[in-house]
């Protein structure tokens, strides 16, 4: 399988930005993608304060995880309402499961 890159697929800088947004939206803004996005947000601690006792190295690692998630969000260009819903979904991901 040959991986398709944006630079190979699309010529023109402005068109590339639109095509990249379209590609990110097609991956993440579907039911399965929204689940993955909420899981990634929870996993990287995007909406949580970091523990106070992190070493510099741990803090840098945490910042890198959040930066990658922020890159995904910037490519999606979601509305404030969608962002609030994502934040709530990520919060729910961090709660323990109720086992009946």
Largest sheet: none
From the alpha-carbon coordinates, what is the Rg to the nearest angstrom?
16 Å
Mean pLDDT across every amino acid position: 87
Report the helical percentage. 55-70%
Structural class: mainly alpha
What gap, in angstroms, lies between the N and C termini? 45 Å
Secondary-structure element sequence? HHHHH
The tally of beta strands, per DSSP, is 0
**Helical stretch tally:** 5
Organism: Roseibium algae
InterPro entries: Bbp19-like_phage
Pfam families: Phage_Bbp19
Protein name: Bbp19-like phage domain-containing protein
Could you name the key traits of this structure?
single chain; 100 residues; mainly alpha; 69% helix
Describe the model.
Helices cover 69% and strands 0% of the residues. It has one domain. It starts with 5 loop residues before the first helix and ends in a 7-residue tail after the last helix. Helix 3 packs across helix 5. The model has no long low-confidence stretch (mean pLDDT 87). It has 5 helices and no strands. By secondary structure, it is an all-alpha fold. Pfam families: Phage_Bbp19. This is Bbp19-like phage domain-containing protein. InterPro entries: Bbp19-like_phage.
In short:
The chain is mostly helical and 100 residues long.
Itemize the secondary structure elements and their pairings.
Elements: H1 6-9, H2 13-28, H3 31-44, H4 56-76, H5 80-93
Helix pairs in contact: 3-5
